[in-house]
Every structure is written in C-alpha cells, then in structure tokens.
Amino acid sequence: MARGGSFTPLKVNPARLNMIKIRQSWSKYNLYNLSRAKGQDNRARTFFALKWKAKSVSRNYHGSQVREGDWTRMFDRRLRSVIPMDAKYLATNDGSIESAGRGMGAELRRPKKSTPAIPYMQMIYAPLERRLDTAVFRAMFASSIRQARQFVIHGAVTVNGKKMKFPGYLLNPGDLFQVNSDRVMYAAGQPKENPAKIKAEKQVAEEAEAEAEAQAEAAAKEREEAIQSMVEKDEEETAIDRDPRQVLKQLQAQARTILSDSRADVGGKRKQDLRAFTRTIRQLLSQSKKGDSIHSASLETQFAEIQEQLRIRQENKQRKSASESDGSSQKSHDADAETLESKSLGVSEPADDNTVTILSSSEVSELYTAIKSMNENPIDDSKPYATPWMPRDFMSAFAFIPRFLEVNHSICAAVYLRHPVAKPGMAEVPSPYSEDTSTIAFSWYLRRR
After folding, report:
1. Where does the record place Basic and acidic residues bias (predicted)?
2. 344: in domain
3. Of 50, 208, 369, 402, which has the most beta carbons under 10 Å away?
4. What is the residue range of 148's domain?
C-alpha cells in the first residue's frame, strides 16, 4: 500500500487476459473460444518466441492435466504414419522386379497420382492419446479431460475387466476399457439446478417461488383428484359404466401435452403431470373386476391387443365395401363387426349405432410412444443428473470418435484398436490447431535431442 492510503495497481499484462485457451472440454465457454480462435501471429517475433507461443497454446489443449516434465519424457520424435498401397498392384507383383532394378521402363511407367501430403507434425501429441483418461474423453464417456481423470481415480473405469485407478495408464492395442453407466449419464446428461445458486437468491424471490410451488401443489392435487374421480368407477353411486374410449382419449391428450413439452418446464409441475399420467394408466389397466374390462400383463400385450383390433377393423371395412350391394347382409355384417371390436378391446356396447372409432393407428403409436418413453426414461430424483435424461447442451459440436477407437455407447465400453497414425491428408490425433503451429511446437521439444 502506498502513502496516502492508495493501492498500488498490479502490473498485469493485458495480452495474458485476452489470451484464448482451448481445452478438452464440452463447455459452452470452450466452444465460444473455439469460435473466436485465430491463427498464430508470427509478426515481430523471434524464433524462440514463436516456439514458446506454439508450445504454450498447443499444450493448453493437449494434455493440460499432465505435467510438463512427464510430457517431455513421453515425447517421441519418431512419428507414426502409413502409406496406402495399390491392392491390385500388390496382388499382381511380388516386388522382385523392383528389387532387381528392372521393370521401371518408360513404357510401363504410369502417370503419378496427386496424393496429398502427410501431416506428420499433427502427430506430435500422439503419445498422449494412449493415456486412459484421454481415451475415456475421446470415447465421449466424460465431458472433459479432467472429469475423465476423476472417473479413473474414483474407480469407475475398468481395463480388461480389472479396475484401473491410474489415469496415466498407457493402453495397448486391443485393450478394452469400460466406464460406469451412471457416471457416463451424469457426464453427458443435463445437470441439475445448482442448490448453492438457489440458496444465494434473495428472500423475496424465495418467498415468491414458495408461493408459486404451493399454488402448483394445490392445483396438482385438485387435478389428481379430478382425474382419479373420473377414472375410478363408483358402482354404488352410478349404475352406468364409463366408456373406456373416453379414458383412452384423455390419456392420448395427456400424452400429446407431455411429449410436446421439451425441457421448457422441468420443475415440479411437469413431474406432477407425469405422475398423474402414470397413475391414470395404471388404474385403467388394473380394471379387471369385470370380464369386459381392459386388462393386460404388460404394455406390449396391451398394445398388441389394440393393434389386433385395428387389423380386424380394417378387414371389416374391406368386407363392408365388397358387400355394399347387399343391404341385408350389410346390417348383419356391421353388427358382427361392432361386436368383434367391443370384445377385442373389452368395452361394453354403446347405445348409439353411429359411434366413432376408438383410436387410429397413429394415435395408438403416439400413446404407446408416450408410455414407453416414461417407462424407459422415468423421473428419478435420486439421480445426480436431471431426469428424464436429455443430452448436454452444446454436445453436438464435440461429438466425434477417433478412428483408433471402437466404441459401444450401449454398454459404455470401448476398444483401443491401435496407435494413431498419419495418412495422406489426414492425422488421427484430433487438434484444433493448424500444422504450422504443431511444426513450431515440435521444434521446441526437439531441443537437446
């Protein structure tokens, strides 16, 4: 502190504040940095400054979790590459002519094809791709390289069936590594609301939120009571059975509402709607007190019955159009069709003859999709990620798998097929930087070697 009570300003280099650091992460801030990243400015710089800058920016992305000394020992000046050969020529010649120095006359010389150059310098950080934490991130099992390292240290990753807690373990070709599925869903799914952020809100906002929740709960209770009173049949008060077609139509309307709502409302109201929808379906399917009620052992059996009813109805329509000329047979055929439809769905015969069909095939598919989605992706407050599960935002920009990995996301496992190599016009090590930057960084690590 200077005299007079004034603070001495810190000497901060403004160039350091504006420096763009690109990381191995799916963060939206990292995506923003990628969008505004530019090439390296080589004007008014010494060769040492160029090498230092290239090494600095490239190491921010490749192996930022690895210490510089460890990476220096891993560095190898020998870069892996392959040259594609003509399979037809290899099949017709064994190489004896070329080895003897013959057979290269002008009459057999073919015009050379223009093959792109091999980007050798893009393979400078290929040894880092063998690390277990880097392979977990490349397989899209973690949202960042540091999260992948955390999964390995916490024992959520196995290599060839054995738990591996060392993120620096170097994979060999053919190694199988697998990550806990709950960790992968947490890494690739939508995060829950931060409780610390909610606690930090003002008291007025908290009171307003509590009041809104109370109103939502009251409305939800009223809605649940109304749905329950509509679905449950009270035989003592009324003697007329309710037509299950109306219940199916209400379920279909609820399915449309739930499916059309994406993630705009993931709060308590949406959860209560889903619970009410599940309860209504369960009550409808459990109506087995009478012989004409709808019952099935599973969703597949229930919708198989509905599809069978739709098939019978279509056959009846075809028969009706074929025998339209015969009036007397038409009436009996319509009566049989209505009886068959009512038996297939288990509904009582309606009083009106001009009744509409229960559900079309598209409506049945929509209802089945809603119920199946709720069963496969339910709401579970105990999970550390938001449910129902949805992919993380800005994930599509980083969704790619390198060629040296074979990934199965259904079981959260991957195989390290081989070491990454360079081919004409392509290098298998993903990098956001150009070949010029990699070349200068390679020259930095070549010192004293």
Report:
1. 313-323
2. yes
3. 50
4. 21-81+117-189+410-445
User: Residue 166 belongs to a domain with what CATH number?
Assistant: 3.10.290.10
Say which residues have a Cβ less than 8 Å from residue 70's Cβ, sequence separation at least 6.
Answer: 168
Q: Do residue 184 and residue 205 come from a single domain?
A: no
Q: What is the pLDDT of residues 168-195, one digit of tens each?
A: 999 999 999 999 999 999 999 988 877 6
- Could you tell me if 148 and 133 are in contact, meaning their C-beta atoms sit under 8 angstroms apart? yes
Report if residue 402 sits inside a domain.
Answer: no
Amino acid at 407: V
Residues 216 and 166 in one domain: no
pLDDT tens digits for 223-260? 777 767 766 655 544 444 555 656 666 666 666 666 56
The token pair that represents 47 in the structure block: 């060769």
Same structural domain, 202 and 131: no
* Structure confidence at residue 295 (pLDDT): 42
Q: Which residues pair with 189 in a beta bridge?
A: 391
Instruction: Quote the tokens at residue 421.
Output: 């190599």
